[in-house]
Automatic annotation (TrEMBL):
It comes from Favella ehrenbergii. One of its GO terms (cellular component) is cytosol. This is Uncharacterized protein. The keyword Chaperone does not apply. Keywords: Cytoplasm, Glycolysis.
Amino acid sequence: DRSQPAEQWVVGRLSTASHAVFTLLPDAIRSQLLLDRDPHGNVQVAKIESERLLGELVGQELRARAAGGNYVGKFSVQYHYFGYEGRCPPPTNFDSNYCYSLGLTAGALIGSGATGG
């Protein structure tokens, strides 16, 4: 049944590069790609939790670095849904200046060791 393809069926049809990316994805994201379809059989992209994907991949990388002795610290992720922001109009000058200031302030806080940890 192609409405719910088995992972093996999909993996067998991927290019080498696509297979490498697919195997890096957390189980929950792979399941969303394989199973969640609209009535026309398309992947429901809006339901894929890209924010969770980014958080999990960062966590995996930091665990790997910690295991190699290249990272000492805590990692606690707080997810935020970016779906609406991804479909919004371009930022205004106010938006750009505000976010620039937020980033500059965050960088200054991190640089001074004020990370809350």
